[in-house]
Amino acid sequence: MATETKTAAAEKSGKDSTLSDKFHNAAFINEYGKLESLRAVRQNTLFSVILVNIEGFEGTQSSLKDPKMLATVQKVAAAIISAVRNSDVVGMTDNKQIVIIMPETDYFTSLSLIRKLSHATDVLLRDGVIDAAVAYAQAAFPRDGKTYDELLMTAKYRFTDRKNSLWDKLDLDDKLFWEIVEGLFSRGYKGFDNSCFDAGMGFELTEFIMDQINDLIMKEIKRSAHRKAVAYFSARKISASLPVAKGLAVSGPLSSKIYLAGEAGDNIREIRNASLIILDDPRLKETFFTFYLTENSGYALVCKENWGATFSCFHTSDHYMVEGLINKFYKEYSLQEQLV
Questions:
Q1: What φ, ψ does residue 145 adopt, rounded to 5°?
Q2: pLDDT per residue as tens digits for the range 130-159
Q3: How far apart are CA 176 and CA 214, in angstroms?
Q4: How far apart are CA 324 and CA 20, in angstroms?
Q5: Sign of the four-CA dihedral 313, 315, 320, 326
């Protein structure tokens, strides 16, 4: 009788008593999501949703009455609840996906949380605490939908969309940054979204192609100075004489986050409009990359120097590939959370 009373009270309050007092049931989370979308429309504010898919649970007949599945969902839910802010709301959708509703949150902030959560659940999977893979997708208001239901549909679509990405097709989630980079040069991609090419002496494209592409990206960033984006540029040595650094020096304030990665040049302390990532890694002296990510698009260029002033290059406009490379670079060098 006491158990029945406790369960009934939990259902009435919107809490799922099998998981956590901070984890809400589908009825509550649906109502909360609709109210949040109405508030965002009325007050012209931002908010985001993150969908969490536990392999073998979403869209199936699996039940939390199954002790093994219950234990997995409990562990994942606990990891999520410990990572979100007090203002975020976590619960279960009707089709057995976990959803996080994040008020006052834009696209890049939600991506940062996804990266944090992915790391936490990857550790749980690696250590055998859970035995099901966990995937994440997000959607942000108003870009991805004007209602809570529209945001959920966009996030669900992105699970499918990502499966068509080169990132998922090559199963790169479990590979290291430099392992991925080396593999990209050797596959000879010639597609529209992903392509390999050679540059330098004897080729149609010169060794300056990297500087030319970086210049185009910088012009785009400065042309849309109020739009949020993130860009990473690597170099052998970070100095004020780098073309990117020169462009930043004469730019006004930018909403984009721009990072220069490489060995520190002589007496280099700061570069206007950029954060420096000082890395003493010999691989960064022969392999150069540019990553550029916005809400609507992504671009990555990776070039490896060969003998005779030539370069083997790979570039992509696959949004998930760009996002994945940024996340792997972040993880490779244990960079600070604010880098995304």
A1: 160, 150
A2: 989 999 999 999 999 999 999 999 999 999
A3: 25
A4: 31
A5: positive
User: Residue 70 has what pLDDT?
Assistant: 87
Q: How far apart are CA 258 and CA 251, in angstroms?
A: 12
- Does the pLDDT of residue 11 top 70, yes or no? no
Please say if the pLDDT value at position 7 is more than 60: no
What integer pLDDT is reported at residue 6 of this predicted model? 42
Residue bearing tokens 């997708």: 137
pLDDT tens per residue, range 171-186: 998 899 999 999 998 7
- Does 214 have pLDDT greater than 90? yes
Q: Where are the alpha helices (DSSP H) in the chain?
A: 2-13, 26-43, 67-83, 107-126, 148-163, 166-169, 177-185, 209-223, 243-249, 319-332
CA dist., res. 308 & res. 248, Å (int): 31
CA–CA distance, 176 with 297 (Å, rounded to integer): 24
Q: Which amino acid is at 92?
A: M
Helix axes 148-163, 26-43, angle to 10 degrees: 110
> Both tokens of residue 177?
């940054």
Contact 260, 329 (CB under 8 A): no
**Closest by CA position to 179, among listed 91, 287, 103:** 287
Q: 276 to each of 1, 101, 136, 339, how far by Cα in Å?
A: 62, 33, 29, 10
Residue whose token pair is 């330098």: 200
pLDDT (tens digit, 9 = 90+) per residue, 236-291? Answer: 999 999 999 999 988 899 999 999 999 998 778 789 999 999 999 999 999 999 99
- Report helix, strand or coil for 162: helix
The Cα 113–Cα 121 span in angstroms is: 12
Residues 82-85: contacts with CB under 8 Å, at least 24 apart = 83/113, 83/116, 83/117, 83/120, 84/113
What pLDDT sits at residue 81?
95
Which amino acid belongs to residue 180? I
SS3 state at 2 = helix
